[in-house]
Amino acid sequence: MLGTLKNRSLIAVSYGIYSALIVFFFDSFSFVNPAPASVVGYISLIGFVSLVEFVLLELVRVQMLNGKNFRGLFVSSFHISGLVASCCCWLIFHGEESSLFLFITTFLVSALLPTMVVVLYFIFNEAKLKISTKEIIEEEKSEIEYVPLFCLESETGKTLLKLPIDQLICFEANDNYVIIYYFDKSNNVKKMMERFSLKKMEEILSLENTKFERVHKSFLINPSRLIAISGKAQAYKLELQGLESLIPVSRSYSINLLEQKLIEKN
């Protein structure tokens, strides 16, 4: 609003004209004895108010540039310029005490409207800034890639394993236990055995909308870790990243899906 000389000049002149209209509306010059010529009086009034307001706006700009609080001076500038102008008009036109009081009252009343406009402008800008800041924060949060986690807990609620799902390689059923093959933070292959079923592993993965492939009654694999498919129909073998042994594929499992994913991956 006050960034350019043109804007500051426009605000100052506009307030000067506005003040002259208020004086005209209240017919304040009729109480000055002798009453000034209409044109001279109103032009002088516009000039006084505009000049004082422009000087105050320059002070406001200086405070803005210095990083100081400028809002108080900006709001009160309308009252100050009106009071200075009323005193100057009273002195120039040799008015009586009653006319000075009338001028001061007139300018104090006239300053209420622009003061309210400026206050509402600050409130609106503050609300707009808060909304923009909130939107930016929400956008930044949404831009942060969500990493689905695999969290395995015991019956007592103790966390047994917690890692990004992408680090999982596969699950192998072993009687009443399941062997979990995964990469640790150093990208080394690790495995752990816990008393769970493959079905339970599928349920945990489904909580993160992630589906591993049950290629065999004893194996649940992470398709993103598939490197190669070998063998022929009814005897396919899968090579997974990080594992030396090949994973058997059940005869009832359709290998087409994995073949398509492997083609897309390569």
Task: Spell out the blueprint of helices and strands.
Blueprint: H1 5-26, H2 38-65, H3 71-92, H4 97-110, H5 112-143, E1 149-153, E2 159-164, E3 168-174, E4 177-183, E5 189-194, H6 198-206, E6 213-216, E7 219-221, E8 226-230, E9 237-240, E10 247-248, H7 256-265
Antiparallel strand pairs: 1-2, 3-4, 3-7, 4-5, 6-7, 8-9, 9-10
Helix pairs in contact: 1-2, 1-4, 2-3, 3-4, 3-5
H/E topology pattern:
HHHHHEEEEEHEEEEEH
Mean pLDDT: 81
Strand residue percentage: 15-25%
Low-pLDDT segments: 31-35
Query: Radius of gyration from the CA trace?
Result: 40 Å
| Count of helix runs | 7
Shape: rod-shaped
DSSP helix fraction: 40-55%
The major pleated sheet works out as: 5 strands, antiparallel
**Count of discrete structural domains:** 2
Distance between the termini: 57 Å
The helix/strand class is: alpha+beta
Spatial order of the strands in the main sheet? 5-4-3-7-6
Explain this structure:
It is a single chain. The protein is of the alpha+beta class and 266 residues long. The protein has two domains: 139 residues, no CATH class; 117 residues, OB fold (Dihydrolipoamide Acetyltransferase, E2P) (Beta Barrel), CATH 2.40.50.1020. It is built from seven helices and ten strands. The strands form three sheets. It has a five-stranded antiparallel β-sheet with strand order 5-4-3-7-6, covered by helices on one side. Strand 4 and strand 5 form a beta hairpin. About 2% of the residues have low confidence.
Keywords:
5-stranded antiparallel β-sheet; 7 helices; 3-stranded antiparallel β-sheet; 266 residues; 10 strands; alpha+beta; OB fold (Dihydrolipoamide Acetyltransferase, E2P); 2 domains
